[in-house]
Amino acid sequence: MSNYDNFDFNRTLPLINEDTEFFPLMSQEDEEEMNNEDTPDILSILPLRNTVLFPGVVIPITVGRDKSIKLIKDAYRGDRIIGVVSQRDVAIEDPTFDQLNEVGTVALIIKMLQMPDGNTTVIIQGKQRFRLNEEVQSDPYIKASIQKFEELRPKPDKEFKALMASIKEMAMQIIQLSPNIPSEAGIAINNIESASFLINFISSNMNADVAAKQHMLEVANLRERAKMVLGHLTVELQMQELKNQIQSKVRVDLDKQQRDYFLNQQLKTIQEELGGNSPDLEVENLRARASKKKWSKETAEHFRKEIEKLARMNPAAADYSIQINYLEVLLDLPWNEFTKDNFDLKRAEKVLEKDHYGLEKVKQRIIEYLAVLKLKHNMKAPILCLVGPPGVGKTSLGKSIAKAVGRKYVRMALGGIRDEAEIRGHRKTYIGAMPGRIIQSIKKAGTSNPVFVLDEIDKVGNDFRGDPSSALLEVLDPEQNNAFYDHYVEVDYDLSNVMFIATANSLSSIQPALLDRMEIIEVNGYTIEEKIEIAKQHLLPKQREQHGLKTSNITLKAQVIEKVIEDYTRESGVRGLEKKVGSLVRGIATKIAMEVEYSPALSKADVEKILGPPIFDKDLYENNNVAGVVTGLAWTQVGGDILFIEASLSPGKGKLSLTGNLGDVMKESATIAMAYLRAHSSKFGIDHRLFDQWDVHVHVPAGATPKDGPSAGITMLTALTSAFTQRRVKSHLAMTGEITLRGKVLPVGGIKEKILAAKRANIKDIILCKSNQKDILEIKEAYIKDLNFHYVSEMREVIDFALIKDKVKDAIDLTVKETAPILN
User: What mean pLDDT is predicted for residues 755-778?
Assistant: First the structure.
């Protein structure tokens, strides 16, 4: 069975021949006679998908499945008695016996008709309820044994009569309110005498789903079934009243719209007479602008449909201004409009060298890109990601690249963005909708091939409004961004010619899929020599210009700049240095404004007068006169830094304490170092019994600063060995590397930043893993000529080089206390 229609007198009655021995409205006598009829013990079962048959009710059913057609034809040739049961899941095409409801209705096939479209339609009338027992046959159609379903009929007391009267009255009200129900239905309900048939008739024709009707069929108590019907009718009556109220309101609103339309037509005529801009003229202006655009065939067709929609709108409608704004955005976008690239590579090199000192690797990659573009004239733009500490010039480098290439420059700050719609835009159906910031930036640039800087891409967040970094996946994929989809624009926009440059301080917080789409270029910190040149060539001239001074008003020698770098800044970049240079310039500007005599060439003493006493003391890191104190090298988001590891002993029971706001990885490094030292104590001349008689406390100063990472492993072990042997560490020595339980030294990252930090602290000797030697080769020899590197692969080599053979003068007396033997 594939389809069905509800009972309708206008459809059903003409289909019945004059010799048909039934009447659609049965009396109580007819119902009693029907209930007393004998029912076969085994019935052919016809599954119904979208309806439920009730006793006494006549409905037409269209049969389309082969099994059902064969069942109907066999039954029609016989006694015309079948069992009708609704299926539990209406989505199942061919239900099995187990997928049918337990309670169904015995049905009499009144008429079978062949319809013009080839389908078979049967008219059936419900007789009695029955309950399925077990399946007897499944092929070619289901046959099952059944048992009679007894109905409990209440006494016709006052309450029951009032209940039936309420049902009949409410049904009549629904028929009067609903224009879709014919008036014959009201005549039928008024002429029904039997309470049971009235409930069945209304249950069959009410607006309820199959599950609700099946539940009514399965209720044996007639009074309870009547209450269920009354509840459904109450809800239906309320719905009909609400619909009529809405329709009445809509008719009133429609009349108002028609009135507004005529008034606007008159207003348009008046505006044309006065020479003003009518809506039609506005549409024509948009069409004129569109004729000059260089967009694709698909975009032009989309614009044509949207502007035709605008022309059909009432100018007073709320959507009119929304549509105008949308079309203006389409017209303002630079579809297929490009600036001409400058392929003079020598000029590009000069521009990059002039604007930024150092950064050779980045400059070389830009020149390579321009070289390929010059030869091929068509190349998918690369996605570069500049990663490095703050203040090294990542963002300003994008502006220099735009100047070198001759492209427009646009920057988008991603820090703190948490809404995906910031990238992809809002759908224009929303109130206050606008394009995403990608499309807005392209519109602002006025060209489809700008240099686009995505600043602080590692600071993108996410919350319940979506994940912006996932939206960036399409933007930063050269294979996909030629058809970038913005929710507001609704047309694919080609971003493949845009040169995207992302900046980040750390790669750890960037989504892996996003990271995979970018070419990572590390922008490391500057050496002191580089900072001096940057200050002379860029920072000082910039600050002089900002403060209204001339070149002759202030000059800074290299040694003065070096003092500012070493005593007043501690960073990988030059942002802090620029602030200090600005303070010096302001100090001179004040003297000039107050007409005080001064020397334009500032001395070191002048620097201290303006900036105050030195903030950082590098001598703090030069001498390790106490056993158990080792200098380590650390990497931070603002560059490299010096890190002290202190280990001290006190009498106890071998407890290990760790302090200094350490992370889990750093704590594990201390545990590994202690375990290795205990296991190999004899190699270092330590009595193994000392570990059970002395408590060890490891502390990393700057306790308020969180610290984590594996690179302090060899520093931890060296500090513990120094404490237990009371041999101090060599001065001007620092180290970095990870340790294993076997005593192997593993490579770590951030080597260049760590080396620069060591040089700032006047370190002379640095211990590294052999695998980190390749990182040292990437640093210019001129910057590390004063440093000595010692490459190791095992901890034994670190201890042999780092510790002085003689004990410190005030060495702790690490004697072993003999314990009394345990007697049995």
Answer: 86
Active site residues: 711, 754
CB environment 792-818: b (16+ within 10 A), e (fewer): beebebbbeebbeeeebeeebebeeee
Confidence of residue 655 (pLDDT cuts 50, 70, 90): very high
Tokens of 802: 């780092």
Q: What's the average model confidence in pLDDT over 782-798? A: 88
* pLDDT at site 698: 93
In degrees and rounded to multiples of 5, residue 237 shows phi and psi of -65, -45
Report the distance separating Cα 405 and Cα 535, nearest Å.
Answer: 26
Q: Are 566 and 642 in contact (CB under 8 A)?
A: no
Q: Which stretches of 46-140 are DSSP H helices?
A: 66-77
How many Å apart are CA 47 and CA 124, to the nearest integer? 13
Rounded to a whole number of angstroms, the CA Rg of the chain reads: 45
Residue 793 has φ and ψ, to the nearest 5°, of -130, -15
CA 580 – CA 617 distance, rounded (Å): 17
Q: Using CA of residue 502, residue 507, residue 512, residue 518, what is the dihedral sign? A: positive
Q: Please choose, from the candidates 121, 195, 208, the residue with its C-alpha nearest in 3D space to the C-alpha of residue 165.
A: 195
Residues in Cβ contact with 32 at an 8 Å cutoff, skipping those fewer than 6 apart: none
What's the CA gap between 256 and 247, in Å, rounded? 14
Range 752-771 average pLDDT:
86
What pTM value is reported for the model? Answer: 0.58
Residue 468 DSSP SS3: helix
Q: How many CB atoms lie within 10 A of CB 448?
A: 21
In whole angstroms, what is the distance from residue 722 CA to residue 644 CA? 14
**Is the CB of residue 515 less than 8 Å from the CB of residue 382?**
no
Sheet holding 519-522, edge to edge: 409-413, 451-455, 499-504, 383-387, 519-522
Q: Give the chain's end-to-end CA distance (angstroms, integer).
A: 93
Contact of 5 with 122, CB cutoff 8 Å: no
Alpha-carbon span 559 to 539, nearest angstrom: 16
Question: Does 338 have pLDDT greater than 60?
Answer: yes
How crowded is residue 787: how many other Cβ atoms within 10 Å of its Cβ? 16
Q: Quick one: residue 803, left, alpha or beta (phi over 0 = left, psi -120 to 50 = alpha)?
A: beta
Distances in whole angstroms, Cα of residue 810 to Cα of each of 626, 694, 745, 813: 9, 18, 31, 9
Rounded Cα–Cα distance for residues 393 and 388 (Å): 9
Q: Where is mean pLDDT largest: 183-187, 637-641, 750-754?
A: 750-754
SS3 assignment, position 124:
strand
The Cα–Cα gap between 547 and 566 comes to 25
Say how many C-beta atoms besides its own lie within 10 A of residue 63's C-beta.
22
Q: Please count the other Cβ atoms lying within 10 Å of the Cβ belonging to residue 643.
A: 26
Contact criterion met (CB below 8 Å) for 556 and 587: no
Residue 19 confidence (pLDDT) above 60: no
Q: Which residue has the tokens 């970038």?
A: 484
